Amino acid sequence: MASLIADIKSKFQAAAPDKMREVPMKSLLILVGISISLIFVVLWLVSFKGDEIAQKRQNVLFGAILESQTSITQDMTESLLALPGTTDMFFDSLSKREIHTKLTQRFADRLGTTDILISDIEGHILFRDASDISIYPTDLQILSPSLKRLRDKIQLSPNQNFASDRLILNDEVYHVSAREISMFDRVRYLYIATPVESIFSHSFLIPLNLKVIAGTHPPKQRADLYVLDLKSSDGKIVGWLSWQRHLPGITAIRHFLPTILLVAVIIGIISFLAWKRATALSNDIIFSHQEAQKLALHDPLTGLANRMLLKKQIETAKADVKRGREGFALHLIDLDKFKDINDTMGHPAGDELIRQAATRLKDACRANDTVARIGGDEFAVIQIEATSTNTVSRLARRINEQMARAFVINNTEVYVSASIGIAIDATGESQQEEIHRRADIALYKAKEAGRDQYCFFEDEMDAELKHKHKIERDLRQALQEPDKNGLRVVYQPQVSANGRHIRGFEALIRWEHPVRGNVSPVDFIPIAEETNLVIALDEFVMKEAFKTALKWPEVTMAVNVSAKELHQDNYPHKIIALASEYNIRPDQIELEITESVLLEDSPRVAKTLKILKAAGFKIALDDFGTGYSSLSYLRRHQVDKLKIDQSFVASIGVREDASAVVQAILSLGESLGLSVTAEGVETIEQRDSLRKRGCAYLQGYLFSKPLEEKSIVQIMKKFKDRNDQQRLQKIS
């Protein structure tokens, strides 16, 4: 401004020096007025545009914060459930004080007013607690339908244990989440209800006078307010978010207007300062938006993309494929044995391992691939331009190689591996939920194949998974009413090698499905082990076997024990209590375990076996010879008996190496003072060969098929009559 006036003055002086003083003041005022007007127009345009940009950024900011409420609730839930003893309290005492301290108060400290509910699988509320114990903030009658929808959503998605929604309660918009918690064959649901408004408790938002308004009709429009709709998971509007308009441009103009009017000479300086101030405010908003967006879209521990950003990137990859680019692959990655390290070295060490694993993942991938952390030890990679399965396989192998190298945590080398499930979308037409589901199924297959593997999704996997889910559902129902659903225990005799005496019986599970007919144990027992139903299944067999053993105290009763049972801290005490309840002598019961259990060399398993041995139970090693057990394991765990696997018995006389293995097992048993039983004896030749080699006890269809409990009387009488007849023949 000053330079413009000086320029005009110089021109007048050059043209007419004597008339300079005659220049009308009116012209100067007009010039100043025009300059001020131009400045005001420019400032108004700048402020209007700045306010428009600010409004858009505020919409994006609050939308991102709203979306982060689910992630925050889920992360807090998972963190609290990971604490020792937290899961147990949902199934044991349901102590109000304990849950209030461990859950309710912690959620309330972070999210404000909190309502905690716990239900069983049917939705019956077992427990309720609130951050203010004198008042429950939500109406249970209104809340119940929403809880059922969340349970249904989890139960219909096999690989999902968390769901959330928004709804209106007590004239407020609430964020309600559900988390499925499983232990053994029991299921609980943890519900957390918090006001949506609590997520906006950040101090930098307080000046905006932010409010959450419940209802389906928008609030009355006001020039000084912004409004954003709040929707439930099914897209219905349940409320509105309103806040005070933040107008950095107009604020700047109002601040500097008196100075501009009073000091026109220095208007340029003031305008410059105002522009600088407006720019600073705009930069602050941009920075705040960037920080909020980073918080909403990235994992705080690793800096990788989170689940929300992963979903956006999948949609971007799909759109690129539709525009003609090559397909993309989704890799779901799970760290094998991470939980062991987390348990033994502590959570800080586990976090450090996660950070190092994230770095290795980024190193293995290209810069334009997306690497995300989507759970505790779960990662995902979007590999774009996946031109062939070979290209995808190369990346999967690089990831496996990176994860197989030693990690150094607290100056200690630790080892994990990675299981990878891969789904490829070559058309861009698949829904992202379907892509994720396929990769998840492939991940399950990779783990099933022995871990440290990668596996591509195939259509056959889907059919197999559906079949497994049907078996699991029917088995769960059968365990609730065994007699009605065809679950029963049968008993196969174990006889002396001379065929004169029944030494004992082995209790075996059978399932005559009401619709499918006979379901082989080979089909349903692995599924039971995967889903923890094996614990309830073992308990059912154990109780039935104890009932039968009580009637025949002179013979032993062998019962198979799963590896999962042996890893339960309370298992030995449960079995000892069960034997006492049924008045069974522990030395009458023979617990059969597999070689793989001993190979784990678990301190917990060793302690369990030691307690059971001290109580008088006998330990038998089933399917001996199929694994890698050593003499040290046999001595350390005080095994009483070896059972020769039926695959070796079937090969006697057919394969020389099988006969040699049988002889070696018999010699080993003799040298260690262990009893030996051969399984699967079906021919006289097998019986004679085993008897000749010194095998003391035999079991198989040659002597008897597995019998119903009522048939034991007959076979015991049959052997008794045979022995009586032989004694009479000797006397005569």
Automatic annotation (TrEMBL):
Organism, as annotated: Hirschia baltica (strain ATCC 49814 / DSM 5838 / IFAM 1418)
Alphabetical keyword list: Membrane, Transmembrane, Transmembrane helix
Record protein name field: Diguanylate cyclase/phosphodiesterase
EAL domain mapped to chain residues: 468-720
InterPro entries cross-referenced by the UniProt entry: Biofilm_reg_signaling, EAL_dom, EAL_sf, GGDEF_dom, Nucleotide_cyclase, Rev_trsase/Diguanyl_cyclase
MF terms in GO: catalytic activity
Database matches in Gene3D superfamilies: 3.30.70.270, EAL domain
Record-linked PANTHER family: BIOFILM ARCHITECTURE MAINTENANCE PROTEIN MBAA, DIGUANYLATE CYCLASE DGCP
Domain GGDEF: 326-459
